[in-house]
Amino acid sequence: MSISRFGALDTIINRSNYDLEYVEIPDSKISEFFGCNVFNDKAMQKYLTPKAYTEVKEAISTGQKLSREQADVVADGMKRWAMEMGATHYTHWFQPLTGRTAEKHDSFFTLTPDGQVLEEFDGDTLVQQEPDGSSFPGGGLRSTFEARGYTAWDPSSAAFIFEVGEGRTLCIPTIFVTYGGESLDYKLPLLKSQAYIEEAAVPVCQYFDPAVTHVKTTLGWEQEYFLVDEALFNARPDLVLTGRTLLGKHSPKGQQLDDHYFGSIPERVFAYMRDLETECHKLGIPVRTRHNEVGPGQYELAPMFEETNLAVDHNQLLMDLMDRVAARHKLRVLLHEKPFAGVNGSGKHNNWSMATNTGKNLLSPGKKPGMNLRFLTFFVATIQAVYKHADLLRASVASASNDHRLGANEAPPAIISVFIGDTLTKVLDDIEKGEDQGISGVKDILDLLSKIPNLELDNTDRNRTSPFAFTGNKFEIRMVGSTMNCAAPMTIMNTIVGKQLKDFYEEVEGLKNGGKSQEDAIFEVIRKYVIESKAIRFEGDGYSDEWRDEAAKRGLGNTPNTPDALDAYVSKSSKDLFLESGVFTEKELDAHYEVMCENYILKLQIESRTISELVLNHIIPAAVKYQTILAENVKTLKEAGMDESSFEAQKEILTGISMHINGVKKGVDKIYAAIEAADSHEHAEKQAKAYATEVKPVMDEIRDHADQLEYLVDDTEWPLVKYRELMFMR
Ligand code: ADP
Ligand code: MG
Asked: What pLDDT, on a 0 to 100 scale, did the predictor assign at position 166?
């Protein structure tokens, strides 16, 4: 039985006395319970021996493995902590290429052969597990005789306890690999890229400060999402199955008035946010900011930034928490990049920077002019890296759902460009022109930099149309989709900037060997990068047609669809880069590429089948019913001897309805033929491309006719929850 639109509307109307009773907000200060469900430093000190504690800390900071004995001690402490917290089960928590997280729970409890009942958890179980991985995407990395996948502990991200109702589970963050150690997940490449950029950045940092021995990257994400009422959600099969509305006439009022952005948060949503934030804080996720976004029913949540690996884990956890907490409030979270046509989609801006063990943000222009040469080095190297590898960055955010944002009349375009603001543009332009601007060397440029105003202030009125913007002390990568695992774009950022820093170091050393002073050598390489990468810098309106033309002239890539964008992963230059950096092996890269293609195909398959069923089972029956009423009306009037002109309107509507019924039906036939043709290709790459060019456009054709029917058909006959209801009723 389908859930009717009117049943859902009844439910939501009768829910107006929304019961907030079950929302438990602790009355203590956040600082008192922050991280209480995390096996953090405080818990480790309490549950580990001083020796084990020191060893774990050491292993975390150096990335070295713990011995079997050491792991046993940690496992024992972790188990005691978790059980005191009420956990009964544990799981290796990992991030397969499906995009969300996976877990398989095992109980601490065991029976020994002689019948004793024990709670057990040792070093082996902590360090490695073998979940049945055969159902996770592997892109052919595992042949069937070796279908197993292994999870291995990542000590750099703390274990935590996840609460579901009364149940508590100890979750151990892990990587997910094949028997041969090839990555089947997002985390392993990320960790490798972190190691790579650190190795590249430290020697460069030492030009400026010999005390720097470690560099890590930092990530602060901003998560956008929509909320809809659960009853309305359940009455839309397309939302349930695909996460977005495949059909739906635009609501007369959408976001035109901009009255939602930063507006007051509705009470019911506020209760949800508070509840969600509490859950986040218990898990040590430092969320701080919440506000309404532009779309009606759209919101945003942002934390304080953290080391990238941890921030990625926290975002993955957050997405899980969002769903669970929403269910308590009879709401549903739409994480999809474009749940509604005609209103803004959702992204997940990734704010990225690099930080040293001496506590310095490498993208923060310093107060002391001397330090600004360091700032310029990292700033310009990042721009140069993005210039050289824009296609890879684009590929890292490619997905079927993000295609509805990038380049589709919306923030941000599929063309990658870098926005840096007026002040820094002037600085880089002056560096480029060199002596014409009275800049002949380092001293002049530092003088110039010391005179520039506060950049963060300069950037407050920043360009929102740019996909990659410098915002005062970090780069903000705005192409990332709201459903995505941030690890993919972060892995690319780390790898391309790492490679650029290696090149930078070599070039500077080369010039030094040729007799240049270190400062002059650095300045020369910076200047070279500024000139080379100029084409990627753009300060204007990224949505305009003029920019599209201008970008093409500059030779910048513009790949609005995923299958084309993904090609960059497996190009010769990418392969060279990944092999050199050790972030992916060739086999891993081919497999990841294949999985991305497959994900794309599957998403489009599900969508095209869903839209067809909606048309055949919901839309056509409703339209035919109204068509019959109109036809009978016309017939009756005619028989009553009425003049043709008296039922002109009815006839006109009838003609429209008949035409669009034919239109949707033809669309369905066409899409099935297109699916069949696409599926007949042997390789995932060809299939994906056929879905993009042959199947996807037909969905738009079907939608046009279906939305016209929604416009024409009697509201009391229309079976699908309408946009105005989804967006404005709560
Ligand atoms: P916006 O105007 O885009 O919302 P905010 O100033 O609120 O910008 O900051 C957005 C995000 O940037 C936050 O998640 C914050 O933690 C993050 N951020 C700030 N500094 C850094 C940094 N050095 N590295 C990474 N992320 C950072
Ligand atoms: Mg932002």
From this structure: 82
* Test site for ligand 1: of 215, 294, 351, 362, most ligand atoms within 8 A of the Cβ: 351
For 178-216, write each residue's pLDDT tens digit.
888 888 899 999 999 999 999 999 999 999 999 999 999
User: The tokens 């994906």 sit on which residue?
Assistant: 688
End-to-end CA distance of the chain: 25
3-state secondary structure of 721: coil
* Residue appearing with tokens 């921030």: 311
- Joined together, the tokens standing for residue 47 give 């549950």
> What is residue 452's predicted lDDT score, i.e. its pLDDT?
63
Can you list the domains of the chain with their CATH numbers?
34-185 (3.10.20.70), 194-584 (3.30.590.10), 599-728 (1.20.120.1560)
Q: Which atom from ligand 1 is nearest to the alpha carbon of 302?
A: 14
Pairing of strands 287-292, 298-303: antiparallel
Q: How far is the CA of 351 from the centre of ligand 1 (A)?
A: 6
Instruction: Look at residue 1 in the predicted model and tell me its pLDDT.
Output: 42
Q: Which atom of ligand 1 is nearest to the CA of 361?
A: 23
Q: How many residues does the chain have?
A: 730
The predicted-structure confidence for 532-560, as pLDDT tens digits, reads as follows 999 999 998 888 889 989 999 999 999 88
10 Å CB burial of residue 116 (0-12, 13-18, 19+) is exposed
Per residue in 408-426, pLDDT (tens digit) is 766 677 899 999 988 889 8
Is-contact 199 580, C-beta < 8 A?
Answer: no
Q: How far apart are CA 601 and CA 687, in angstroms?
A: 7
pLDDT for the residue numbered 118: 82
Instruction: List the structure tokens of 37.
Output: 């469900």
Give the DSSP letter string of 500-521. Answer: HHHHHHHHHHHHHHTT--HHHH
CA 237 vs CA 6, 367, 417, 719: distances in Å: 15, 56, 38, 11
Pairwise CA distance, residues 626 & 614, whole Å: 17
Q: How far is CA 663 from CA 615, 619, 710, in A?
A: 11, 12, 13
Highest mean pLDDT, choosing among 63-67, 136-140, 143-147: 63-67
Q: Which ligand has the shortest distance to the CA of 347? A: 2
Looking at the CA of 353, which ligand is closest? 1
Q: Of the candidates 190, 177, 239, which has an alpha carbon nearest to the alpha carbon of residue 611?
A: 239
Ligand 1 pocket check for 347: Cβ under 6 Å: no
Burial of 11 (0-12, 13-18, 19+ CB in 10 A): middle
- Residue 36 is predicted with a pLDDT of 93
Q: Considering only residues 658 and 256, tell me which one the structure prediction assigns the higher pLDDT.
A: 658
Q: Which two tokens stand for residue 640?
A: 């009553």
Return the structure tokens found at 716. Answer: 């009391």
Which residue's alpha carbon is nearest to atom 6 within ligand 1? 471
In angstroms, the CA 553 to CA 547 distance is: 10
Q: Please determine, for residue 23, whether its predicted confidence score (pLDDT) is greater than 80.
A: no
Q: What is the mean pLDDT of residues 92-115?
A: 85
| DSSP summary character for residue 14 | H
Output the CA 197–ligand 1 centroid distance in Å. Answer: 21
Residue among 492, 484, 228, 544 at smallest CA distance from 346: 484
Give the SS3 label for residue 528. Answer: helix
Q: Which residues contact 238 (CB under 8 A, 6 or more apart)?
A: 244, 245, 246, 247, 610, 611, 614
Reported as a pLDDT band with limits 50, 70 and 90, residue 17 is low
Ligand 1 close to Cβ of residue 343 (< 6 A): no
Kindly report the backbone phi and psi dihedral angles of residue 347, in degrees, each rounded to the nearest multiple of 5, phi listed first: -120, -175
The dihedral over CA atoms of 304, 399, 354, 64, expressed in degrees to the nearest 10, equals: 100
Q: How far is the CA of 222 from the centre of ligand 2 (A)?
A: 6
CB proximity list for 260: less than 8 A, separation 6 or greater? 292, 293, 294, 295, 296, 297, 298
362 C-beta closer than 6 A to ligand 1:
no
